[in-house]
Amino acid sequence: MCLTHILLVDDEEDVTRILAKRLEKRGYACARAANGREALDAMEGEFFPIVIMDVKMPVLDGMGALQQMTTRWPKTQIILLSGHADMQLAVQAMSQGAFGYLMKPVDFDELLFKIEDAATQTRLESDNEAGRP
């Protein structure tokens, strides 16, 4: 049984490959994209409840993609990853609708907790829309 579908976005292929492998072992279905543009293209064809995305990428960076994703797919929970400690960027990301902001290298247990939290939030929003208590 698939827990939820996650889109992993990072220009470092090894990062998305390893994360996908670890998440799939825990029951998540994963798709991968190499930059924000590829992520937006993937989201055009399929709904992803959760996106885990690097901030610094070529073509379209994480902040640019975040802005478009939160406008076009407001129900998607977006967790940003950054290799640079930048509190101002983290605050900006959260104010623009990011569900979370974690530092790379990411602690897998911390990421898993954030994913579970995002999945719970998605379920609660779906239940509220359906009128379920």
Report on this structure.
- It is a single chain.
- By secondary structure, this protein is α/β, with parallel strands linked by helices.
- The chain has a single domain, classed as 3-Layer(aba) Sandwich (Rossmann fold), CATH 3.40.50.2300.
- Helices cover about 50% and strands about 20% of the residues.
- The protein has five helices and five strands, in the order E-H-E-H-E-H-E-H-E-H.
- Helix 1 (about 15-25) links the parallel strand 1 (about 5-10) and strand 2 (about 30-35).
- Helix 2 (about 35-45) runs parallel beside helix 3.
- The longest helix is centred in the last third of the chain and has 23 residues, at about 110-130.
- The chain is globular.
- The two termini are about 25 Å apart.
- The model has no long low-confidence stretch (mean pLDDT about 95).
